[in-house]
Every structure is written in structure tokens, then in C-alpha cells.
């Protein structure tokens, strides 16, 4: 699973369209991220802010590698 897909599905628990709204991008951008195109620094910061706004414990390492299956977030 891609790192961004892990963040979207396992951390935020939202659809691509919902995640796009949180990050201030299009659903197509989220799809590209999940296919391997990295988000920009500004987009990563927007995702981090969205996590903070939702009181989600955040780990920047998730941007680079999703935890192994079964590993605690």
C-alpha cells in the first residue's frame, strides 16, 4: 500500500474525494499521489494541519513509508 493511501485509508479513514478536500487539492491529485507521485511540501503541510485539526496523532514518517501490516500507527 502506498504511503499516501495508508494515510488516507488508515489514519483519516476517508475517500479520495474527502481527502482531497482536506488537503485542498483535486481527487485526481490524490489518485496521482497514491500511484507514486509525491505531494509537494505545501500539500504535506496541509495534510499535517488536517490531522492536527482532527486531533490525530501524527507521524511525518508516514509520508515516506507506510507501517508494515499489523504494525501500530
SSE class: mainly alpha
List low-pLDDT spans: none
Just give the CATH class. Answer: Mainly Alpha
What coarse outline follows from CA principal-axis ratios? globular
Mean pLDDT: 92
Please tell me how large the radius of gyration is: 11 Å
The strand count comes to 0
Number of alpha- plus pi-helical segments: 4
Stated plainly, the CATH topology is called 434 Repressor (Amino-terminal Domain)
Order of helices and strands: HHHH
* Cα end-to-end separation: 14 Å
Tell me the CATH architecture: Orthogonal Bundle
Quick gist of this model?
It comes from Aquamicrobium terrae. The chain is mainly α and 73 residues long.
Question: What is the strand and helix layout of this fold?
Answer:
Layout (H helix, E strand, L loop, with lengths): L2 H10 L3 H8 L3 H8 L6 H13 L20
Describe the model.
The chain is mainly alpha-helical and 73 residues long. The protein has one domain: Orthogonal Bundle (434 Repressor (Amino-terminal Domain)). The chain has 4 helices and no strands. Residues 4-50 form the HTH cro/C1-type domain.
Amino acid at each position: 500500500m502506498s504511503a499516501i493511501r495508508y494515510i488516507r485509508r488508515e489514519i483519516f479513514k476517508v475517500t479520495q474525494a474527502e481527502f482531497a478536500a482536506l488537503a485542498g487539492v483535486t481527487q485526481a491529485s490524490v489518485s496521482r499521489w497514491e500511484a507514486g507521485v509525491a505531494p509537494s511540501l505545501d500539500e504535506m503541510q496541509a495534510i499535517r494541519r488536517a490531522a492536527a485539526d482532527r486531533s490525530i496523532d501524527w507521524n511525518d514518517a508516514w509520508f515516506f513509508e507506510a507501517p508494515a501490516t499489523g504494525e501500530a500507527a
